[in-house]
Design a protein that fits this description.
The complex is a heterodimer. By secondary structure, chain A is α/β, with parallel strands linked by helices. Chain A is built from 7 helices and 6 strands. Chain A has a single domain, classed as Rossmann fold (3-Layer(aba) Sandwich). In chain A, a hairpin with a 2-residue loop joins strand 2 and strand 3. The longest helix of chain A is centred in the middle third of the chain and has 21 residues. Chain A is globular. Chain A starts with a helix and ends with a helix. By secondary structure, chain B is α+β, with helices and mostly antiparallel strands. Chain B has a single domain, classed as 2-Layer Sandwich (Methyltransferase, Cobalt-precorrin-4 Transmethylase, Domain 2). Chains A and B meet through helix 4 and helix 5 of A and helix 2, strand 3 and strand 5 of B.
């Protein structure tokens, strides 16, 4: 059913390909650096950021967009709709936010919004053209959320790039991510320092060619 | 010297084994309902086989909706270990054919527990380690 819907969408979008923006989604677990990376891209090409970042998990609790982002790379140019999604998790406990000195009422509100954000992020999976799965390179990649996201993208035949973020940190280990997802290209970057951003754009342009 | 570990005050949970035949003929919605019923009953579910990718995503979505509606429910811990990981192309094709005949990946094991009981499931390709809340 999903494949049929996607097939029809492909035919329709193919008819308008020259005018269309490519929907580029950022998916991953909470606090992996999805918004930091989306911010860097948006700032580079539009001068504006897409959303706020925080050390407290679930800072992004609504899907946020930046339309008509024209990315220029080596003389080529493509226009994207950048879609930054809330981190996907299987559990959300408001008490976790209390450790960040948040008031109980605010923590409960944040938790409620975060659950809605996860539901919204999952719904948006069907609408993406290309997806960047952002993983924290200092964390164990064998997390079922990562596997579920990538499995769902594969089932929908959506081109995927895995980004191992936070490569500026000493604990970062891209090899673990490469071993966990050997069928996908994994690119090590640092959204914070901008390391390997040029390679990132190159990989994104390669993915768009697959559409 | 190895750190001495004790089990704290864990009470009121059971481990529920579910053979794949129990969910094989159910629809996606029915499978998820069955799984969540077990987990909401404070049981850790050990399921033979695995859900389809879209069912796993729906399970996460339904879990989030339940956190909002059920007091004390904080979500789930979920892990799947599959015998098909890191196989070569021909082995994957062979097991894919066998799975199609069996109606699912029977070599996989899915573990799902309520987050109030299962603190973390540590996973690597060959092992699943359950850390329970003390």
């Amino acid at each position: 059913m999903v494949s049929l819907a996607r097939f029809l969408k492909k035919i329709v979008s193919g008819m308008f390909k020259s005018k269309k923006e490519v929907k580029l989604g950022f998916y991953g677990p909470p606090n992996a650096g999805k918004t930091s990376l989306a911010n860097r891209i948006c700032k580079d090409f539009t001068g504006e950021e897409i959303g706020s970042v925080s050390k407290i998990p679930h800072e992004t609790r609504e899907v946020q967009f930046k339309e008509k982002v024209e990315i220029k790379y080596k003389g080529k140019s493509l226009t994207f709709k950048i879609v930054d999604t809330p981190g996907i998790a299987t559990k959300i406990d408001y008490e976790e936010f209390l450790h960040y000195r948040m008031k109980k009422g605010d923590a409960k509100k944040r938790a409620k919004e975060a659950t809605q954000g996860v539901i919204e992020a999952i719904k948006w999976l069907d609408d993406m053209d290309v997806v960047v799965v952002v993983l924290d390179a200092t964390e164990n990649p064998y997390n079922q959320v990562n596997i579920t996201i990538i499995g769902n993208l594969a089932a929908r035949k959506i081109p995927v790039l895995i980004v191992a973020n936070k490569m500026d940190l000493r604990k970062a280990d891209i090899k673990k991510i490469e071993a966990a997802f050997p069928e996908y290209k994994t690119l090590g970057i640092s959204a914070k320092s901008g390391k390997n951003l040029e390679d990132f754009y190159e990989e994104i342009f390669k993915l768009v060619k697959k559409l | 010297m190895a750190k001495h570990r004790t089990i704290g005050k864990i009470k009121g949970f059971s481990i529920h084994f579910l053979p794949y035949s129990e969910i094989k003929d159910l629809s996606g919605n029915e499978r998820i309902r069955k799984i969540l019923n077990v987990v909401l009953g404070n049981s850790i579910l050990v399921l033979q086989g695995k859900l389809r990718d879209e069912e796993e995503a729906r399970l996460i979505g339904d879990t989030m909706a339940m956190i909002d509606h059920l007091k004390g429910f904080k979500g789930i811990e979920l892990a799947v270990i599959s015998g098909n990981e890191n196989q070569g192309f021909f082995s994957k094709m062979k097991s894919g054919f066998a799975n199609a005949l069996a109606g699912g990946d029977l070599g996989a094991i899915t573990i799902i527990g309520p987050a109030t009981i299962v603190k973390e499931i540590k996973r690597n390709p060959k092992k699943i380690e359950l850390l329970l809340t003390g």
